[in-house]
Amino acid sequence: MSSAHNPAWSERRSVVTGIGVVAPNGIGTDAFWKATKEGISVLDKVTREGCEQLPLKIAGEVRGFDPATVIEERFLVQTDRFTHFAMAAAGLALDDARLPELRDGGQGGGAVSPFAIGVVTAAGSGGGEFGQRELQRLWGQGSRYVGPYQSIAWFYAASTGQISIRGGFKGPCGVVASDEAGGLDALAHAARNIRRGTDAVVVGACEAPLAPYSVVCQLGYDDLSRSSDPDRAYLPFTSSACGFVPAEGGAMLVVEEESAARARGARVRARVAGHAATFTGAAEWQRSREGLSNAIRGALADAECAPQEIDVIFADALGMPLADRAEALAIGDALGAHARSVPVTAPKTGTGRAYCGAPVLDAAAAVLAMEHGVVPPTPGVLDVCHDLDLVTVCARPKELRTALVLSRGLMGSNSALVLRREESGSLW
Amino acid sequence: MTVQLTYIELATLMKSGAGVTVDPQLMATQPASTFAAYGLDSLGLLGIVGELENRFGRPLPPNAEQCKTPGDFLDLVNNNLTAGA
């Protein structure tokens, strides 16, 4: 804890000071934002070994990612690809935030106590690639050939644990397993930890659901797009909507208590202003209208934000007609007349949905959109058949002070997050 | 002739099983330095024990995975191999 800055519980506000992205359309914030702003789609044929004969044809793969260049060898061997992504993204976010060095064992050295920094991640499927390899050993050779690191590498909490170990972060750590919307719930959890006294939280989600075993697990979803045409596979809010395209990757953020961040001269990029989550059951897209609208209302109330203050919405954009209709109606239910004039976007049509990583990528894009004063477009989507002002084809310049990020999971979770632009405390 | 586990082989197992790179000559000259100091955790040692048991086709003593240092571990493994030969 920083003793010099100790605001009351209710005044401990959370701000974003670092962003790290490992996405199909770019590794690092600059590459990600350039592709997002330009509306470049990177959806393409699945090229992962072992996936050739599977009915999933199109995905958002993170290509050109060499984990050996960003994490130490023992993490390469002991963890799954989803943790490689998360550790890489966390490293980028920490570099971006320029957090001071940790005090070594409380014995001086750096400026920050290791107990002042926590880690929270969300995960939808854990380490499928690592798990597949060990399961193949189990059934191919026997239980004596399963390596002990299987016990931790597949686990939903693996990324939180390894980021904590690597960084030496000993503050409150957690993992949120609440479906795809858990990416937003993790940010809310981080904000709660900060309200309770933690100074900084490394928070977000990265997923790696494209190993053959993981893909097979997803084939039971009716909402998974079977299209083999990257230009037609993921077209939410259109009459051609035929499901969603899965993706890998995600984003990690550094979220800090505002006064401590400002006191150290950090670049305050946005405020985590409000959040709410609801649950309306699996395969019940019509009911998600009520769930999502209530999540939006709750997040607005939490942020003390009027509907007309929302300047841009990052939609969930599932890509099934019933789900898209429910989301469009939910936005109308919650925002009233403002719903017809607020720009809505879904950059994920250009990358696919990285499950829990998807809404964190949207949150990162929302912060960048507010900083640059531009709403990125929804790649590939043209003929919108809902009463929404969906931004298509090219980015739209607009001063943005408040962004609403929406997310739903296939199992019925709905979440809404309000982010506010903040003036920076330092000259950047 | 009895097969003996060497520091070179132990270093190879540490690298392949746990991603930990150690100079075998350093281990040989400092056999009392701990596995933990080299960056090998308990799961890593457990994996090495399993790999050796598969290779030798018989179990190592139950306390093999409790060894704290490369020196203790090689002594225990090699004594066991000698006794069982």
How are the SSEs ordered, and which strands pair?
The complex is a heterodimer of chains A (428) and B (85).
Chain A: E1 14-23, E2 26-27, H1 29-38, E3 44-45, E4 58-59, H2 73-78, H3 81-97, E5 117-122, H4 128-140, H5 150-153, H6 158-167, E6 173-176, H7 182-195, E7 200-207, H8 212-218, E8 249-257, H9 258-263, E9 270-279, H10 288-303, E10 312-314, H11 321-335, E11 343-345, H12 357-372, E12 374-375, E13 389-390, E14 396-397, E15 402-408, E16 413-421
Parallel strand pairs in A: 5-6, 5-7, 10-11, 10-15, 11-13
Antiparallel strand pairs in A: 1-2, 1-8, 1-9, 3-4, 7-8, 9-16, 12-14, 15-16
Chain B: H1 7-18, H2 24-29, H3 35-38, H4 42-56, H5 70-84
Helix pairs in contact in B: 1-4
What is the gist of this entry?
The complex is a heterodimer of chains A (428) and B (85). By secondary structure, chain A is an alpha/beta fold.
Description:
Chain A contains twelve helices and 16 strands. Chain A has two domains: 9-270, Thiolase/Chalcone synthase (Peroxisomal Thiolase, Chain A, domain 1); 272-421, Peroxisomal Thiolase, Chain A, domain 1 (3-Layer(aba) Sandwich). In chain A, helix 3 packs across helix 6 (158-167) and helix 10 packs parallel to helix 11. In chain A, the strands form three sheets. In chain A, strands 1, 2, 5, 6, 7, 8, 9, 10, 11, 13, 15 and 16 form a twelve-stranded mixed beta sheet that branches. A two-stranded antiparallel sheet of chain A has the order 3-4. In chain A, strands 12-14 form a two-stranded antiparallel ribbon. By secondary structure, chain A is of the alpha/beta class. Chain B has a single domain (7-84), classed as Non-ribosomal Peptide Synthetase Peptidyl Carrier Protein, Chain A (Orthogonal Bundle). Chain B has helices at residues 7-18, 24-29, 35-38, 42-56, 70-84.
